[in-house]
Amino acid sequence: MGKVLLIIILILVLAIILTISVIGFMAYRKAKEVTNTVKSYSNALFGTENPLEGMKRVEMEGSQVPKSVSGATHLYLPQIMRDFPEFHLDEMKSRVENVLVSYLRSIDEANATLLTEGMDELKAELSMRINMNRDRGVKENYQRINVHQTEIYQYRKTAGRCSVVFQTSVEYLHFVEKAGKIVEGRDDLKTQSKYNIELVYIQDRETVENIGESGLGLNCPNCGAPLESLGAKVCRYCDTPVVEFNIKTWGFSSVKEV
User: Fold this and answer.
1) Cα–Cα distance between 101 and 38 in angstroms, integer?
2) What are phi and psi of 158, to 5 degrees?
3) 165 has which bridge partners?
4) β-sheet bridge partners, residue 257
5) What is the pLDDT of residue 58?
6) Of 2, 51, 148, 255, which has the fewest CB atoms closer than 10 Å, so is most exposed?
7) Are strands 139-158 and 161-178 parallel, antiparallel or unpaired?
8) d(CA 193, CA 82)
9) What is the arithmetic mean of pLDDT over 157-163?
């Protein structure tokens, strides 16, 4: 009786071992099928059987491709040239790119005076961003800046205001440090981005002030009497209407990432 019981126990143990082996083999085959499927899809998508390596490769390749700009230069430039014959596209593009690069470098060095040119509203916005970073105790870095393309994006005309919006694609290393440690972004992977830079036709206050200080004479075309102010519309001596002396120039009002 004892031998029979022992045989039964051995049979049960062998059955359990066999069952576990079969289940393990089936699980192994299933896992291998899943692994092969993952490798197959990864190879098809990324060109490598390792999906993590493939995703890193895609991320790296994506960081090399410049953002496309929504260029409408061919559409708006003829309109701008009709309104402003002195408008020089290449010169304006160069100014736009210089402003963008100096804007980013100002943030990088926390020094708003590095901005090459800009209206008061742009300077105020830049100073506010620098102060916010300072209050947060962080250093925002823009390094290895490289501009790809600049085109006219919009031309806006409203009562008393004309503006040309340029769109520029640019790449850089962008990361934020706090206490010497990177808390945002990466310092080993380029960022591709684009910006809208608005150029506004405004009164050139500096030129007007310089003319006033230099004592340059402005005279009535009828009687020759001196005009008392740059904005005079009527000669006070003979009541002859005069064209308002209005000196204007293009100034940058905003730089926005899009």
Assistant:
1) 44
2) -130, 175
3) 154, 198
4) 195
5) 65
6) 2
7) antiparallel
8) 32
9) 81
Confidence label for 54 from pLDDT (cuts 50, 70 and 90)? low
Compute the average pLDDT of residues 10-33.
Answer: 80
Per the CB < 8 A criterion, the answer to whether 189 and 251 are in contact is no
Residue-level pLDDT at 18: 81
> What is the DSSP track for 126-187?
HHHHHHHHHHHT-EEEEEEEEEEEEEEEEEEEETTEEEEEEEEEEEEEEEEEETTEEEEE-S
Chain-centroid distance, C-alpha 250: 22
CA distance 112 to 131: 10
Tokens of 257: 């990432």
Q: What is the CA radius of gyration of the chain?
A: 35
pTM score, whole prediction: 0.68
Q: Which of 116-125, 173-182, 222-231 has the lowest mean pLDDT?
A: 222-231
Query: Helix or strand or coil: residue 219?
Result: strand
* Residue in the block written with tokens 């790449």: 171
Are the C-beta atoms of residues 206 and 170 closer than 8 Å to each other?
A: no
156, 112 Cβ separation under 8 angstroms: no
Q: Which two tokens stand for residue 239?
A: 């009541």
DSSP state of 112: G
Q: Is 93 helix (H, G, I), strand (E, B) or coil?
A: helix
Nearest to 163, CA basis, from 117, 200, 119 = 200
Residues 6+ away with beta carbon under 8 Å from 93: 150, 166
234: CB partners within 8 A, 6+ apart: 240, 241, 242
Q: Give strand ranges (E) for the chain.
A: 139-158, 161-178, 181-185, 191-203, 248-257
CB-based contact 227:220 (threshold 8 Å): yes
